[in-house]
Amino acid sequence: MANPYDVIVIGAGPAGYVGAIRCAQLGMSVAVIDEFVRKDGEPSLGGTCLNVGCIPSKALLDSSEHYHRVQHELAGHGIKVDGTRLDVPQMIRRKDKVVSDLTGGIKQLFKANRIEWLAGHGKLLADRQVEFTPHKGKAKVFSASNVIIATGSRPIEIGAAPLDHDRIVDSAGAQEFQEVPKRLGVIGAGVIGLEMGSVWNRLGSKVVLLEAQDTFLSLVDHQVAREARKLFEKQGLEIKTNCRVTDTRKGKTISVHYEDADGKQNIQVDKLIVSVGRRPHTDGLASEDANLITDERGFVNVDDYCETNIPGVYAVGDVVRGPMLAHKGSEEGVMVAERIAGHAGHVNYETIPWVIYTDPEIAWVGRTENQLKAAGTPYRSGTFGFAATGRARAMDRADGMVKILAHAETDRILGVHMVGPQTSELIAEATLAMEYEASAEDLARTIHAHPTLSEAVHEAALAVNKRAIHKAN
User: Fold this and answer.
1) Residues in domain FAD/NAD(P)-binding (predicted)?
2) Domain with CATH 3.50.50.60 in the chain
3) 153: number of CA atoms within 13 Å, CB side?
4) Is 86 annotated as a binding residue?
5) Class of 354-464 per CATH?
């Protein structure tokens, strides 16, 4: 046994690396073990999010939006562009550069905070020992006063559409296409499926999304989801719900067979993305004698403060209950670090914002209208469309709406739901308001600059009590 640490973190995604940095800031000696390897064979910090998830997908969404605007929207602004040519390999190189810059930044943060990075596989043993197996070399065993498990998640694979990492790919493979597929199929119309489908739809693919659930975006407020679907289909995305994929057959094209309410169906596509969700990456995480408790789906059992059944061993991020969101994992990492140091770390799981980075964007925090109805909670609702805001009109981004749900008796804000331009940024105001237990009246009496997109939030708050100025209540 060698080199005891105050904390060993297994996993260097947003939950792991943020937790490690906070531990170091609090004066602890920290080592981070991470097994991620880039497509060029080199280890890289940042986990799925920075390497093949949140960051590269947003880079491609941004690039594809620029292309789409040049092709279809700028002429209306009096900007005429002739001879536009799409260079997909350059788009992918730019995405890779963004990823490289950010993952390299984490490496520098580790160096500045004196965190030791161990590239390889980490395995929890008994008595807070951790076996480290480097990518090349023999295993070593380290000890620590505390261990934080932050190994993230992996895409779920399905037998009906086995990946070949060429024509049938997961979300990571969808970020590596070197040309625009003429016809693209996506199994799963959730967050990742919609984002990847949007990228290639903007670049010219004919995209069909096959969703198993009979409700589109079931986690989203239903009114907002209906509005979003209408806008996506107007863009050319074909969304089929209540579809169960039964088989895929590869020939000159990929034949995707599925069943829906009308019986057996099939479509022909050139590429297929499998995006049916993610599962916790806990395979090979702990030895039997470590006695770490996981559930039947592989999630690590933790208490309200992310401590496992083993004292001094914690788990954060995608490997534990709650939404698989990078910012949720990061806050759990900070909470655990602060509790290890004897401080009062805490995460409010009621005010975690969600975002889908399509165009228009979808964002929400708190309860949906359906959840409030199911719970029997009395509420009032206020909505306001971006079409009535001067800033959205000037931007040529007038689609969508803001919806605020407040308690009918106390006026406390219970949920805020948006579809429209830059809602990924606008949702922060709503999250802060809910964190401070604000009422719709508080938000309505807060002065918002004019002209801004945030005025839609202000007007929706006014509309809760039928006071919206730019809407017939």
Assistant:
1) 5-333
2) 2-155+279-347, 168-276
3) 27
4) no
5) alpha beta
330 among annotated binding-site residues: no
Residue 450 annotated among the catalytic residues of the structure: yes
Confidence class for position 3, pLDDT limits 50, 70, 90: low
Closest CA to 413 of 431, 426, 391, 395: 431
Instruction: Kindly report the CATH number that applies to the domain delimited by 168-276.
Output: 3.50.50.60
State the DSSP string of 219-266. Answer: TS-HHHHHHHHHHHHHHT-EEE-S-EEEEEEESSSEEEEEEETTEEEE
Tell me how far apart the alpha carbons of residues 412 and 432 are, in angstroms, rounded to a whole number. 13
Q: Is 195 assigned to a binding site?
A: yes
* Pair 269, 181: CB distance under 8 Å: yes
pLDDT tens readout for residues 7-33: 999 999 999 999 999 999 999 999 999
- Tens-digit pLDDT profile for residues 289-342: 999 999 999 999 999 999 999 999 999 999 999 999 999 999 999 999 999 999
Strands 183-187 and 206-210: parallel
Q: Residue 2 pLDDT more than 80?
A: no
Residues of the chain with CATH 3.30.390.30: 354-464
CATH number belonging to domain 2-155+279-347: 3.50.50.60
Report the distance separating Cα 300 and Cα 449, nearest Å.
46
Tokens matching residue 221:
């407020």
The tens digit of pLDDT for each residue in 251-296 reads: 999 999 999 999 999 999 999 999 999 999 999 999 999 999 999 9
Ligand-binding annotation for 317, yes or no, is no
Amino acid at 161: A
Compute the distance between CA of residue 19 and CA of residue 335 in angstroms, rounded to an integer: 8
Query: Does 277 belong to an annotated binding site?
Result: yes
- Select which of 407, 450, 458, 470 is catalytic: 450
